[in-house]
Amino acid sequence: MLITCPYCGPRDVSEYTYQGDGNRTRPDPASTDQEVWNAYVYDRLNPAGEHHEIWQHSGGCRAHLAVTRNTLTHVVSSVSFARDAGHKKSDSRRKTGAKA
């Protein structure tokens, strides 16, 4: 399977590390709801077909990528930087910690 890194171009999957499901939303870090955290950590879907995933180009530029892959055929239909894929939580943390 080949994944096309936006920086490095097409590379074999052996250069990448799977980071997890790209559809999941992390609970509020201040939350003490044990059921919500258990679901986030342990519950996983096993979809057949198109699936959004996060991969890191660990054997190359180390960028985190949002990959859309078909789990039946392993055809990768899109790759973009994870920071550009609508992950707003990291943006809000960056703004909160900044001092003017």
Automatic annotation (TrEMBL):
A Pfam family assignment: SoxD
MF GO annotations: sarcosine oxidase activity
GO biological process per UniProt: tetrahydrofolate metabolic process
Cited InterPro entries: SoxD, SoxD_sf
Lineage, top ranks: Bacteria, Pseudomonadati, Pseudomonadota, Alphaproteobacteria, Hyphomicrobiales
Source superkingdom: Bacteria
Signal sequence bounds: none
Stated name of the protein: Sarcosine oxidase subunit delta family protein
